[in-house]
Specification:
Length: 81
């Protein structure tokens, strides 16, 4: 994986947050402190897309069938006691 050098501008508050992350041992340097939230956001977006896809698949699967909870409970009790 390649890397690209970027120049960014931070507010004093953002810079203080990064310094606090490093001082607390959360990250080892400025780059890690900046990359970590980006990595987390990428994971969150991926999870959101997975859920969105599952919802769309469910919506397109047709009308729901009625669910008989009493029958479900009897089956599970019969199998697992």
């Amino acid at each position: 994986m390649g890397t690209d050098r970027k120049t960014i501008t931070l507010t004093d508050q953002q810079d203080a947050w990064i310094s606090a992350q490093i001082q607390a041992g959360q990250d080892t340097n400025d780059s890690e402190a900046i990359r970590d939230p980006i990595r987390l956001e990428n994971e969150r977006r991926s999870e959101t897309e997975t859920i969105r896809s599952a919802l769309i698949e469910g919506e397109q699967s047709g009308e729901p069938a009625p669910f008989d909870f009493a029958a479900f409970k009897r089956r599970k009790t019969g199998r697992h006691g």
